[in-house]
């Protein structure tokens, strides 16, 4: 659905044209998984799939929300209804953002919102961050707050952590807010410093496929939080603020100090090696050696599967099948426990690879995966 259709539906619903229309994308993470809540490095890029919101201000504090993608009418939230933990459906994301803005002292006096999103939900592609960021940007613009993308991302993360109750890091919101077309975002999640790394696969005869396994995941479930708590325990045992502070060269010594904490040791090993993989990927891309990132992606998958233990049989099936059919590299992307994998391949191999993965899923009796090409796209912006 495009900006015009979203605006027209807004007008039907609310009886007046919207003041504006905004978009915020989902993302794929190229490398740097489960590092963002350890103050580490990540490297996402924005997808063409995006959430679009038509929005107008209100003066009475009321938030009215409607989604083209979910059955049901307009949901009306009076000002005193915005309370963490209260909304348990999709409205928690936009409501959480309005709550976070108000809580941070910004005079947001209500809004009428109509939303539509093409980001698949539960697919590890940041559909929730897209919803949060599109609302944050719209309210920032309409209320003249002038907040930079990274600050909007922080407020959206607060909405997700406190209002929705999912203990996620900062990667997805920053990706949606700050990515640029044709680039991957090299982000230091400690200070949110950013570098846009040119990432034009098509120019090199390459493609990056997203394979959505259709196994749905959710981060408010316990496993994500357990990994996060395990990492925090590791940092505490090692006497550092965050696992980011363990240098790669000091990893063996750090692991030795963890004694019989086998599980924590695995988590620490993943995070420290993953940060190094991000830095290696950036160096390879800067050197113009894009094909060489393939094995780095695959190493990342093995670490997420064996050490961090957030993969699942379907994600492993994508990775193993794609690699045996000639992919340059493959890994799960996002939080894991379902969702999507990415496959780096020669453009000429895409059809065969897609067919091989689909056949492997059919042979294993699994739901057919959804395969599409990931093109590095623009971050959040005003459309109308
Ligand atoms: C999810 C979270 F939302 C991110 O913050 C990040 O931790 C990711 O999982 C794993 O890298 O997408």
Automatic annotation (TrEMBL):
Keywords: ATP-binding, Carbohydrate metabolism, Cytoplasm, Galactose metabolism, Kinase, Magnesium, Metal-binding, Nucleotide-binding, Transferase. The keyword Thylakoid does not apply. Residues 283-361 form the GHMP kinase C-terminal domain. It catalyses: alpha-D-galactose + ATP = alpha-D-galactose 1-phosphate + ADP + H(+). It is an enzyme of class 2 (transferase). Mg(2+) binds at residues 128, 160. Gene3D superfamilies: 3.30.230.10, GHMP kinase, C-terminal domain. Residues 8-57 form the Galactokinase N-terminal domain. Substrate binds at residues 33-36, 224. The keyword ATP-binding applies. It is found in: Cytoplasm. The record marks 27 as: Transition state stabilizer. InterPro entries: Galactokinase, Galactokinase_bac, Galactokinase_CS, GalKase_N, GHMP_kinase_C_dom, GHMP_kinase_C_sf, GHMP_kinase_N_dom, GHMP_knse_ATP-bd_CS. SUPFAM superfamilies: GHMP Kinase, C-terminal domain, Ribosomal protein S5 domain 2-like. Pathway: Carbohydrate metabolism; galactose metabolism. It comes from the Bacteria. Belongs to the GHMP kinase family. GalK subfamily. HAMAP family: Galactokinase. Catalyzes the transfer of the gamma-phosphate of ATP to D-galactose to form alpha-D-galactose-1-phosphate (Gal-1-P). This is Galactokinase. It comes from Streptomyces filipinensis. The gene is galK.
């Amino acid at each position: 659905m495009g900006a015009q259709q979203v605006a027209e539906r807004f007008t039907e619903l609310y009886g007046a044209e919207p003041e504006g229309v905004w978009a915020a994308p989902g993302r794929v993470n190229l490398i740097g998984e489960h590092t963002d809540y350890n103050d580490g490095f990540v490297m996402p890029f924005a997808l063409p799939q995006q959430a679009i919101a038509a929005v107008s201000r209100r003066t009475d504090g009321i938030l009215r929300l409607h989604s083209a993608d979910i059955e049901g009418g307009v949901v009306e939230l009076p000002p005193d209804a915005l309370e963490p933990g209260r909304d348990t459906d999709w409205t928690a994301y936009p409501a959480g953002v309005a709550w976070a803005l108000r809580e941070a002292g910004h005079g947001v006096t209500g809004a009428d919102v109509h939303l539509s999103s093409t980001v698949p939900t539960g697919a590890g592609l940041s559909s929730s961050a897209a919803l949060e960021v599109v609302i944050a940007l719209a309210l920032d613009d309409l209320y003249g707050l002038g907040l930079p993308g990274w600050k909007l991302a922080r407020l959206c993360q607060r909405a997700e952590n406190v209002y929705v109750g999912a203990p996620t890091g900062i990667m997805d919101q920053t990706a949606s807010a700050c990515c640029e077309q044709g680039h991957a975002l090299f982000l230091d999640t400690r200070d949110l410093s950013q570098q846009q790394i040119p990432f034009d696969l098509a120019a090199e005869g390459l493609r990056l496929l997203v394979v959505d396994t259709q196994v749905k995941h959710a981060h408010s479930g316990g496993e994500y939080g357990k990994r996060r708590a395990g990492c925090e325990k590791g940092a505490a045992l090692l006497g550092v603020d965050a696992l980011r502070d363990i240098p790669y060269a000091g990893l063996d010594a750090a692991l030795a100090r963890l004694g019989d904490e086998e599980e924590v040791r695995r988590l620490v090993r993943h995070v420290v090696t993953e940060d190094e993989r991000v830095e290696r990927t950036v160096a390879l891309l800067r050197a113009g050696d894009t094909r060489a990132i393939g094995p780095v992606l695959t190493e990342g998958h093995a670490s997420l599967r064996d050490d961090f233990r957030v993969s699942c049989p379907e994600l492993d099936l994508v990775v193993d099948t794609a690699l045996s059919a000639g992919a340059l590299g493959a890994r799960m992307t996002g939080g894991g426990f379902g969702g999507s994998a990415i496959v780096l391949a020669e453009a000429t191999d895409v059809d065969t690879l897609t067919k091989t993965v689909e056949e492997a899923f059919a042979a294993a009796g699994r739901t057919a995966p959804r395969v599409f090409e990931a093109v590095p796209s623009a971050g959040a912006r005003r459309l109308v």
